[in-house]
Amino acid sequence: MARTVDVKMKVPDITRKQFKIVFLAHFALTAFTMMAWPIGGYFFTNLFFLGCFIWSLTQPTSSEPVSIGLAVNIFCIIFDIVILGIWFPRVFKGNGKTVFSAVMGI
Fold this sequence. Notes:
- By secondary structure, the chain is mainly α.
- It contains 4 helices and no strands.
- α1 packs antiparallel against α2, α1 runs antiparallel to α4 (96-105) and α2 packs antiparallel against α3 (64-87).
């Protein structure tokens, strides 16, 4: 004889929605960038930036994670410009995945 179980779950209230949307968008674009363009420094800097995002989500009253995240983001922008200048594919024929990943990095 089969037994049924009634499970009731409460949907949590989502606070700081815009911040979480920015986090998810940055995470998705970083994942798309890393598909065919695995540059270790790019992964490290964006992992550190996403870590600052998570840190600020866990401590919403502290301003330290946000200020460190801002400093890391400024460094990431400069680093992205250098990486794109060095590794951007010069020939687009046959490099569809690489070009897509580079554009997602922008």
